[in-house]
């Protein structure tokens, strides 16, 4: 098929996520048809090559077509692709659960010892939410059914995960269907509203859990939390006897420079949701970690109906678990996190130079994640209708970089960790040229 055939067919039958399809289907809109990848590079149907500047929406970590992950998937495929985790078990999921548990400290008060598999970030969070609610019921505190989340949070799009969300454009219209959650902007607001005599009080006795994107909120615009805030939140949850759910869907598996964002502040949450990078970004796979204490609350005679009646058809999928194990092996065998530190520093240095451009406002970096705000020359934001961020990304594409903005005009750079130093420089240069062409 030619590119034109692909696009004609796409525009007839496909419906794309987070997309105004009238714009997508406009005759002059020619989206790329991505057909191949290798390392940090993607190739389109016309043979043009690009750096995968947002790691295929934050999923890829060791690069595309990594020989070890490819081999692991092929090898598993020769045995079986999928078997049910309901009533059966399988070698790949068993080994992966053990390897995942080993990534967290054991010598702590409440270590993460249990892993529940699902398919996507949203389901990883959905599962943590349901476990938290049910756990409080078993513990005789059924009034604990509210969740506390942060303003501008993004935890996924299923109804439960979106109940925790704080991005009005995505979540607002479904608010009538959402379960009760309270949003606060900061640790200070949380402290103030839960202090005795507070003006707009939050009743901590009805809270089941607090959920946070640790260190950095992604979809909100790559916004950084103050240093130390996660540890403060852990202490706050301990003081009030409330669960802490860390949404490590974006930050997990090395993205912030350590294996998990929580590790930067020596925090062990009660639940951790991960997905995106878990399988190396190759196949849909998610995991919800929890503690032995939570797990034990679900034990009982069958008639007590304390089981966690939850699961998805593809829970524990063997191909995806094999990919995830290969990805973890690459971390161990190729010193990925050590190698990444130099690239994080190079990215910081290159972005500092980009920051001198008059159309670049704040730049925020957390490990190998960067958000770059576009502004008018006086520092004011651009009007929203201009779609400046999207246009800059379209221009950067001509210079060999694929990425897309978050919120309106925050450019994102978070390439696969295998990106070369030359490709890091090339990517920042592509952004600079894109900014120059659109804003300059
Ligand atoms: C992407 C993301 C999700 C949702 O994951 P999906 O796999 O898209 O369902 C949840 N939380 C965070 C922090 C994310 O970045």
Question: Can you tell me about this structure?
Answer:
This protein has 2 domains: 32-65 and 335-439, Aspartate Aminotransferase, domain 1; 73-333, 3-Layer(aba) Sandwich (Aspartate Aminotransferase, domain 2). With 440 residues, it is of the alpha/beta class. The mean pLDDT is 97. Helix 4 (67-77) packs antiparallel against helix 12 (318-333), helix 13 (336-354) packs parallel to helix 15 and helix 14 crosses helix 15 (421-439). It has 15 helices and 16 strands. Strand 2 and strand 3 (49-52) form a beta hairpin. The protein has helices spanning 3-13, 21-24, 55-58, 67-77, 91-101, 121-138, 159-163, 168-171, 187-194, 229-240, 292-296, 318-333, 336-354, 388-397, 421-439; strands at residues 34-38, 41-44, 49-52, 112-118, 146-150, 181-184, 207-212, 216-217, 223-224, 243-247, 271-274, 286-291, 360-366, 369-374, 401-402, 410-413. It has a 7-stranded mixed beta sheet with strand order 4-12-11-10-7-5-6, sandwiched between helices. A 4-stranded mixed beta sheet has the order 1-2-3-15. A 3-stranded antiparallel beta sheet has the order 13-14-16. The chain binds pyridoxal-5'-phosphate. Pyridoxal-5'-phosphate (PLP) is lined by residues 120-122, 125, 154-156, 213, 218, 247, 249-250, 275-276.
- How many strands, what sense, and barrel or not for the largest sheet? 7 strands, mixed
Main sheet: strand order: 4-12-11-10-7-5-6
Radius of gyration: 22 Å
Number of helices, counting only DSSP H or I runs of 4 residues or more: 15
Please give the alpha-carbon distance between the first and last residues.
38 Å
